[in-house]
From TrEMBL:
<keyword id="KW-0812">Transmembrane</keyword>
<feature type="transmembrane region" description="Helical">
    <location>
        <begin position="39"/>
        <end position="62"/>
    </location>
</feature>
<keyword id="KW-1003">Cell membrane</keyword>
<keyword id="KW-0472">Membrane</keyword>
<feature type="domain" description="Cardiolipin synthase N-terminal">
    <location>
        <begin position="18"/>
        <end position="63"/>
    </location>
</feature>
<protein>
    <submittedName>
        <fullName>SHOCT domain-containing protein</fullName>
    </submittedName>
</protein>
<dbReference type="Pfam" id="PF13396">
    <property type="entry name" value="PLDc_N"/>
</dbReference>
<feature type="transmembrane region" description="Helical">
    <location>
        <begin position="7"/>
        <end position="27"/>
    </location>
</feature>
<keyword id="KW-1133">Transmembrane helix</keyword>
<dbReference type="InterPro" id="IPR027379">
    <property type="entry name" value="CLS_N"/>
</dbReference>
Length: 127
């Protein structure tokens, strides 16, 4: 094989993978959309099977804006859920250095931790 054969193989492979990515994004959007009825989803899927390239282009033109809005809403919900989770995990260990030091001091006074452990907690809390 010569250089141009490899070049065109690379170009067609790239286009095929890009098409598959668009196709899976469209299918994911179809099944995530709560406003679209079941019959319409079946029609879109059948059209994607029979006329894949044309249907993909039409779908992106007709429903592209809604697809972007649904993706943004999903991403915002995921970011909010992640933030809530991070706050809940971070809050369980003491949200402020003063609270952490107060807990550590009470543990030290009760004998649950040693002075070396208290010093390490103090360094970590003040860092």
């Amino acid at each position: 094989m010569d250089f141009w054969s490899y070049f065109w193989l690379l170009v067609w492979t790239f286009l095929f993978v890009a098409y598959l990515m668009v196709l899976f994004r469209i299918l994911g959007d179809l099944f995530r959309d709560r406003d679209l009825g079941g019959f319409a989803k079946v029609v879109w899927v059948l059209a994607l099977v029979v006329f894949p390239l044309l249907t993909s282009l039409v779908y992106l033109m007709v429903r592209g804006r809604g697809m972007a809005e649904r993706t943004m809403e999903r991403d915002l919900r995921q970011a909010d859920a992640r933030d809530v989770y991070v706050r809940s995990v971070a809050g369980s260990s003491g949200s402020t250095p003063v609270e952490q030091l107060t807990k550590a001091k009470s543990l030290l006074d009760s004998g649950a931790i040693s002075t070396e452990d208290f010093a390490q907690i103090k360094v970590r809390a003040l860092a």
